[in-house]
């Protein structure tokens, strides 16, 4: 049998207790949060005495001037019953929630905007509705507190309530603006983040712990499940380090959590922000602090790239290292990386163990695994070392090299608008020297599968730098079906094979009267 609330008969009951209830804990109401967003304030419009004198409440009830549509959050964790007051009175509770909290309390939130039904467990601070005007003529939120007495909900002993919802009862008077300073969980940094390492200074590449001092301004304990820290490195770029764990930050209390870091570059690092995950909710915390990372024992003292490189020629980079310590230093590999003229990454590698004797220099030659196929200006931007399985930045550099030679590109491949049986092929020399392709090789596919097509070089002829030439290919002469899509291409010139640069998604539609979308997408990759 359900238990009817004593405030008035006719409203829907909250279920009776399944077992003998425990004694009511009068210390809890002071730790409940006000049911609106943390830091926001609303005016008290009616006190408990007015509710009692007019028969509008049994418990300790306050009305707050929340406009329609203001988010309403659970003041504590518990079981929420979503109800509707159908009493034919001038005013009633309308859509309301009875939240039963362990420790012997029921919190009623009335006049909500939308009707809900059923029951569910809710977390403190969880969104459970929106304020409205149901059951009354003027929008406000009715907040009422009832205490458990045996198997009944009754008016609490007012003399034992000094603080309600984190606010002294003496401050809960009509026309007073009340700020929600008692959020369920409200985390903040309690000082600067700091780095602690086992042996004093912070050497590059050594594991360390980043300590985050936290303070929970809320009323309930916070179980932090994940921490992500934004770091700005010495070169100005942002990176993130994360850690999974189970850290408890007590309500109105302090705690420290640690996030492992392994600095990969010497210089100053700054902590710029922290994101903590608490029961699936993200808490973004402004943060400060930082640390200084010492350089590696091996230093870069020289780097030289060839000033001019030919298309198809392997990149060879000369690197000089110095060991300034009194012990031999060993690396597991060395890398020079940078950007090509088309802003793609390139890398020259010495993939082997490298020992630099104490107090000495070591000269190394690093080579790229691939060769450049397009002309333009390349740059080397950084030198990395591999140590204990981790890549460490030895130095930031700015060295340029120019790639010259022949670069042939297909600019267009499409059916003529007035002759679907003829294909227009436009070839351009984007290189720095004249070239005369001996053969053009096209690879692609159609409904019948993969095709490779060879076109004699005399169709193209010699091309000066920057020169383009259109070639018309009749479908009767070359097996180009209407659904053919070009995937790759290359050419032979002066006994050397070089790839042809293609616009993205290049192809043609022999049924179309206008160039296809793919054909219109010109520009080299």
Keywords:
9-stranded antiparallel β-sheet, Glucose Permease (Domain IIA), 525 residues, single chain, disordered C terminus, Immunoglobulin-like, 2% helix, disordered N terminus, mainly beta
What number of domains?
4
**Beta-strand content bin:** over 45%
C-alpha geometry = elongated
Distance between the termini: 75 Å
CATH classification, class level of the largest domain: Mainly Beta
pLDDT averaged residue by residue: 87
Structure description:
The protein is an all-beta fold and 525 residues long. The chain has four domains: 29-179, Distorted Sandwich (Glucose Permease (Domain IIA)), CATH 2.70.70.10; 187-294, Sandwich (Immunoglobulin-like), CATH 2.60.40.10; 301-404, Immunoglobulins (Immunoglobulin-like); 408-520, Immunoglobulin-like (Sandwich), CATH 2.60.40. It is built from two helices and 40 strands. The strands form nine sheets. Strands 1, 2, 4, 5, 6, 7, 9, 10 and 13 form a nine-stranded antiparallel sheet that branches. It has an eight-stranded mixed sheet with strand order 24-26-31-29-28-32-33-25, with no helix packed on it. Strands 16, 18, 19, 21, 22 and 23 form a six-stranded mixed sheet that branches. A hairpin with a 3-residue loop joins β5 (95-101) and β6. The N and C termini lie far apart (75 Å).
